[in-house]
Design goal:
The structure is a single chain. By secondary structure, this protein is of the alpha+beta class. It contains three helices and five strands. It has a five-stranded mixed β-sheet. The longest helix is centred in the N-terminal third of the chain and has 7 residues. The radius of gyration is 12 Å and the shape is globular. Pfam families: Fer2.
Length: 107
């Protein structure tokens, strides 16, 4: 298990315990914790409804693949800290990651 922190629009933070041995991506974990993520494309990096901003620990994440980069490029508010949570598989290296859900801000 690792700890990942979710920050809301008000700056309030919630810590989540995240399994690293079950093969889930971060989007699936956020949905399991009942965050309101649409995940319209089912994790294929096509819809960006799981868009997150990495506040701390971006250096702990694997690089974006071409599909993720192409989808992020279509978002007007994406920046160098943007990622799609469906493309991130939690690992022990990601302990302490801090993110903000961007898709919720746009809804």
């Amino acid at each position: 298990m690792i700890n990942i922190t979710i920050e809301n629009n008000l700056g309030e933070r919630q810590n989540l315990e995240v399994p690293v041995d079950m093969g889930f991506n971060l989007m699936e974990i956020l949905k399991a914790y009942e965050y309101d993520i649409m995940a319209t494309c089912g994790g294929m990096a096509l819809c960006a409804t799981c868009h997150i901003e990495v506040l701390e620990g971006a250096d702990k994440l694997p690089e974006c693949n071409d599909n993720e980069l192409a989808t992020l490029d279509t978002l007007p508010d994406a920046d160098m800290n943007s990622r799609l949570s469906c493309q991130i598989r939690p690992s022990t290296d990601m302990n302490g990651l801090v993110i903000r859900l961007k898709a919720l801000q746009e809804a």
